[in-house]
Amino acid sequence: MNYVDAKISTPFVFFTFACTIYNSHANAVSTDFFDVLAFSGPGPERINGRLAMTGALLSVASLVPLFSGQTPESKAEAVMTSDAELWNGRLFAMLGLLALALTEYIKGGALVSL
């Protein structure tokens, strides 16, 4: 970008920024529970973002022992071994899918109707 391009685009950027500020103050924000948690509301976006950050942090925290040379088998106890943990996770995931399919079959349609 040269000086001429910057000089031409600067008023447009300032105008867009000024309109955004004006519109954000002109529109009243609803604080109703159902408006905040609506599909297009601000609540689900923030909740989803924070859960994603938490999941990423937990994923990294789970990998730290592996990068330090420890194996899951070295920390296994009598009942809760690494293989048992994998099988339990798979089992409960499949049971959840089965329960969802069974619920939709009994209900005769989708679990949540939008």
Question: Which geometry do the CA atoms define?
Answer: flat
Order of helices and strands: HHHH
Number of strands: 0
Compute the gyration radius: what is it? 25 Å
Largest sheet: none
Q: If helices are DSSP runs of H or I spanning 4 or more residues, what is the number of helices?
A: 4
> Which structural class is indicated by helix and strand composition?
mainly alpha
- What number is the mean pLDDT? 77
How far apart lie the N and C ends? 47 Å
Q: How many individual domains? A: 2
* Poorly predicted residue ranges: 1-7, 10-25
**Helix-residue proportion:** over 70%
Percentage of residues in strands:
under 5%
Protein name: Early light-induced protein
Subcellular location: Membrane
Keywords: Membrane, Transmembrane, Transmembrane helix
Organism: Salvia splendens
Task: Identify the notable features of this structure and list them briefly.
single chain, 114 residues, 2 domains, 0% strand, disordered N terminus
Question: How would you characterize this protein structure?
Answer:
The protein is mainly α and 114 residues long. It folds into 2 domains: 1-70, no CATH class; 71-114, no CATH class. Helix content is 70%, strand content 0%. It contains 4 helices and no strands. It has helices at residues 3-26, 33-36, 42-67, 82-107. The longest helix is centred in the middle third of the chain and has 26 residues, at 42-67. The two termini are 47 Å apart.
